Amino acid sequence: MSNSSTFFVFVTTGNCAIIFLIFLTILGDLAVYAAFFLNRSLRTRTNVFFLSLVTSDILLALLIMPLEIVRLSNYPYWPFGPTVCNVFNSGFVSLGSASICNLCATGIDRYLAISRPLRYCREISNTIVASIAFIWLFAFISGFVSYFIWSRSRPLICADLSAPLTYSVLLLLFDLLAPFVICLFVYAKIFRISRQQARRINSTCRWIGREHHYASQAKKSAKTLSILVGLFALAYLPFLIFHAIDGAFNEQLPNRFYFGGVVKWLVFANSSFNWAVYGFLNKEYRKALLKICGALWCKRRHRITDQDDNVAAYTIS
């Protein structure tokens, strides 16, 4: 296969995959929004962080993925100028930072709920607005800084997302790697504490059934969030490794266009499936989402039945 045909197949495949991921993200995240606002039981502090995570995912689908289709379709040319190119790349960094920071905040929230339940109920649970504001402020600052990094170091052509090693290492370290390491540390602590609590409850508590159920629910919640973090690692670690190496080689890696596209698509796919992973592993969310799907299906069946009845009545008349 020639280089031109390989390029055409790669771009066509990438565009089709991104279009599919855009629709999947929008439909899934809207279902999550509907489940959250229609079910009072889902309006917990942890689920607010998850809603913030979903918000970063849907913004990625609405603002960044369509521009990636434009970039692929016109590569190596860019029709919108260097300013939009830098906004596009810095927006990608900003929303990626928001995703990992939301996962990190969710882990810290679960750790405080398990390790300090009385203080959590009395004090910490009232800081949700400040926590969300801090996460998005940090994400905005990350994107703002990266904008000036690219505006100083990049040519006018909007090529692959990358930067010189002196910039890229600090950017990847503070925006993605440091929050990810905090996530790993916090979830390890959550599992250790939940096992200790379950062991203590089984040996000393008179009301074993109720307390064991609470410990079991906390452990299941931690497992669900750990799966989200694990999928985040599978999606973002190739991205981190590739761009660190690419920066070290002064953006001269062979086939960097193809490798850069694949690692970016992994990030897009991770954002597109976050709602499904959390929604269907969380029992309450799963029930709410299935209820919404059932209601939409019944409404569609009723509409089809009404149309058939109208056609039959018109034919008889």
Automatic annotation (TrEMBL):
Biological process according to GO: chemical synaptic transmission; G protein-coupled receptor signaling pathway, coupled to cyclic nucleotide second messenger
PROSITE patterns for the chain: G_PROTEIN_RECEP_F1_1 (PS00237), G_PROTEIN_RECEP_F1_2 (PS50262)
Protein keywords: Cell membrane, G-protein coupled receptor, Membrane, Receptor, Transducer, Transmembrane, Transmembrane helix
Domain G-protein coupled receptors family 1 profile per the UniProt entry, residue ranges: 28-278
InterPro entries (alphabetical): GPCR_Rhodpsn, GPCR_Rhodpsn_7TM
GO molecular function: G protein-coupled serotonin receptor activity; neurotransmitter receptor activity
Xref: Gene3D superfamilies: Rhodopsin 7-helix transmembrane proteins
Transmembrane segments annotated in the record for this chain: 6-36, 48-67, 87-108, 128-150, 170-190, 225-245, 257-281
Family: Belongs to the G-protein coupled receptor 1 family.
UniProt-recorded name of the protein: G-protein coupled receptors family 1 profile domain-containing protein
Origin species: Pocillopora meandrina
Lineage of origin: Eukaryota, Metazoa, Cnidaria, Anthozoa, Hexacorallia
